[in-house]
Design goal:
With 127 residues, the chain is mostly beta strands. Helix content is 0%, strand content 46%.
Length: 127
């Protein structure tokens, strides 16, 4: 069982930056794909980024490409999602999710692909 815990959410101004963290309990964390999803009220859960297990190749949804950066520190068993140039539409509950292996295009943003989920961290974008 892999336990994931997100942190770092909060209020960010439009155009501002925020870094989210996803800490994992699993000692073989380096081999797990970790994806970030978000869900705004009344909307479906949306995948925004993924980091491969193993080679740490990164992927981004078009909606965040160029503004979000996913990175991982396997020694700390943590994946980060750096949000830059925040937009009002980035406001949502952000979740990290884990699955053994790689991000598995084209299924990387399909929630059932992931067996393990964190509890979420809220991001608000407002002046």
């Amino acid at each position: 069982q892999v336990h994931l815990v997100e942190s770092g959410g909060g209020l960010v101004q439009p155009g501002g930056s925020l870094r989210l963290s996803c800490a994992a309990s699993e000692r073989t964390f380096a081999f797990y794909a970790i994806a970030w999803f978000r869900q705004a009220p009344g909307k479906e859960r949306e995948g925004v980024s993924c980091s491969n297990g193993g080679d740490a190749t990164t992927y981004y949804a078009d909606s965040v490409k160029g503004r979000f950066t996913i990175s991982r520190d396997n020694d700390k068993r943590t994946v980060y999602l750096q949000i830059h140039s925040a937009k009002p539409e980035d406001a949502a509950e952000y979740y990290c999710a884990g699955a053994y292996g790689d991000c598995d295009e084209p299924n990387m943003y399909d929630p059932p692909r992931y067996s393990y989920w964190g509890q979420g961290t809220q991001v608000a974008v407002s002046i």
